[in-house]
Amino acid sequence: MKNEPDYLPAGEGSDAKRSIETEKELLLQDLQVHQFELETQNDRLRLSNEVLESQRIKLSGIYDLAPVGYFILNATSGKVAEVNNEGLRMLNTERSAVVSGSMERWIAQEDAHDFASFLERLCKRDGSDRCQVKLVSYTKKVRYVQIEGICVDNVEPSEHQFYMAVIDITEKKENEDRLKETKERLELALSASLAGTWEYSLSTGKLYFDSQSCRILGIEEPFNGDYEAFIKLVMPPDNVLVDNLFRNAINRDQELYAEFQILAKGKLCYLSIQGYLMPHYLHSHRFVGIIMDITDRRLLKENFLKLKLQQHKQITAAILEAQEAERKRISEALHDSVSQLLYAIKLNLQLIKPDADTARSLKIVTDLLNQAVEESRRIAFELAPAILTDFGLPATLQELARRLSTPNLRVTTAITGLKKRLHISVETSVYRIIQELLNNAIKHAEASSIHVSIAGAAQIIHITVKDNGRGFDIAKVACIPCGSGFSSIKNRLSLYNGTMSVDSAPQKGTSIHVKLYFDSAAGKNS
């Protein structure tokens, strides 16, 4: 406000006073406006302060309730200025034992150098850095932690602070160690088992083999990843089987297992491959597995099966030989004792001169004796035909056909190729097989004609027994005879790696075809 002048010109006093009053009013108005603005600014500052306080409370809550440990260190002294609740939980102690103390106190001794280097890097860098160390709590519990930190300017320009987030990775580290140990064990197991790993990418259609798999397959490393190239390595017909199993396993999300043969570096090898589709929740479009060389195991298995089959053949041969010996003994007993006694009784009866009353009775007794003698000879022939040993298989089969033929049934034979006699065991087996087939045809076929044909070739005998009986539906397995007779046939077939097939239809007769394989030089089963 300006001071009033000591002298005012005439007529100007009232005007000057009015001017001064006006200036006062204007000045008051300005002051009121400034006061209002200051009050408004004060209200805004108060609101901002309340918002800042609210944010501070929120940040403080987040800081203390965060799932990771937060530490604020003085960059010069390395002492802890602040720590949150999670950090205290990690150290398993109270705040007073941590704040104002050195952070290195809680670092494992063997990691102290790494932690010091980490702090030096924070001082030199503008950005953040990280390290992994072991944190030792107040109770000596060790935790694996990852520390991520940054160096920031404090309020004091000459002071710097380290803001650090400490993340507990103990479980992750233990899982990594277990995974590493499992991987080492797997590699050791794969190495010991001569197995390799493979992987098929569903997105690219490429197949990848590790070095061990390449060695097993006999291919150069690295493999070009062509699936078709792998299938071509597999020998037919296994290549079609492996391809189908691969596709079915992928399309149907099934486990894969297949055994196949390959020709690796000129050597025939047996391999097995197995794998599975990675679970969908892993978001991995891969099919992974292992491949193993099972050549030695397969050969051992085959040798074991051969030995077991050979033992079975030896046991079967011994049983059949014992049966034949028992049949021969009974046959000789019937022929040498019972038949002779019956024949002697007949001769003695013929010496009797009967009168008219006893002539008819003697005739009946004589007829019965004739039947008994004939029956004993038939039984003796069926048990062990002596003609087989003396004259061979063709003569024996012709005699068998003659004996089985009746007015209602005609049995015929046709034998080719057997110019030389076979081993007695082979001839006996052929005879027994034909005998059982004829018995079954007579019992079940209701045939009027049965034809037996034998064709002998080098190490093979073809047997066919054909009748014109009622036949049966082959699809109904229950209709095929499966009694002791067929069991005996199967035992004899197993001795000579034989096969048997049946061709029949209702009302169209039955044909049974048998093949026997034997060593012609030794005359024994192959």
Kindly list the characteristics that best describe this protein.
5-stranded antiparallel β-sheet, 23% strand, 13 helices
Radius of gyration, in Å, reads 54 Å
Strand content: 15-25%
Number of strands: 16
What is the number of helices?
13
Outline the biggest β-sheet. 6 strands, mixed
Distance between the termini: 139 Å
- The ordered string of helix (H) and strand (E) elements is HEEHHEEEHEEHHHEEEHHHHEHEEHEEE
- Summed over residues and divided by their number, the pLDDT gives a mean of 81
| Shape category | rod-shaped
Structural class: alpha+beta
Oligomer: single chain
Could you characterize what this model shows?
With 526 residues, this protein is of the alpha+beta class. 49% of the residues lie in helices and 23% in strands. It contains 13 helices and 16 strands. Strands 11, 12, 13, 14, 15 and 16 form a six-stranded mixed beta sheet that branches. A hairpin with a 2-residue loop joins strand 8 and strand 9. The N and C termini lie far apart (139 Å). The model is unreliable at 520-524 (pLDDT under 50).
